[in-house]
Amino acid sequence: MAEERRPRAGKSSTNAARRTPSVRGAEGAARAASRSLEGLIGHPTEGVSAVRRADDGWCVVVDVLELARIPDTTSLLASYEVQLDQDGELMEYRRVRRYRRGSADE
Fold first, then answer.
1. Measured between alpha carbons, how far is 101 from 99 in angstroms, rounded to an integer?
2. Does 71 sit behind a cis peptide bond, omega within 30 degrees of 0 on the bond before it?
3. How many beta carbons lie within 10 A of that of residue 17, not counting itself?
4. ∠ at Cα 36 (23, 42), nearest 5°?
5. Element (H, E) at 51
6. What are the φ and ψ backbone dihedral angles of 3, each rounded to 5 degrees?
7. Using one digit for the tens of pLDDT, what is the confidence trace for 55-89?
8. What does residue 38 show for φ and ψ, rounded to 5 degrees?
9. Backbone angles phi, psi at 22, to 5 degrees
């Protein structure tokens, strides 16, 4: 008969996950924000244009392809500001800019 294995007292994986943030550094925050946003809005992410540490987590600006057009330079992109908590969970997002791929900032 197989022996049942139980976690040791005080070593619960749930408690460990709560103590140790799942996002480590700006790169982890950028990846978490891109994945979460893409899953919510259903548009592919193009990249990350800003990451900064916030008091309670991270603020990440993710660039998204909202409408693909031909030629590619006329496609519509948008920048979304994504707020993550310390564990990399999406707290809120908002679109802050929409622009044509070939356009430069003024």
1. 6
2. yes
3. 11
4. 160
5. strand 45-54
6. -85, 135
7. 999 999 999 999 999 999 999 999 999 999 999 99
8. -60, -40
9. -85, -15
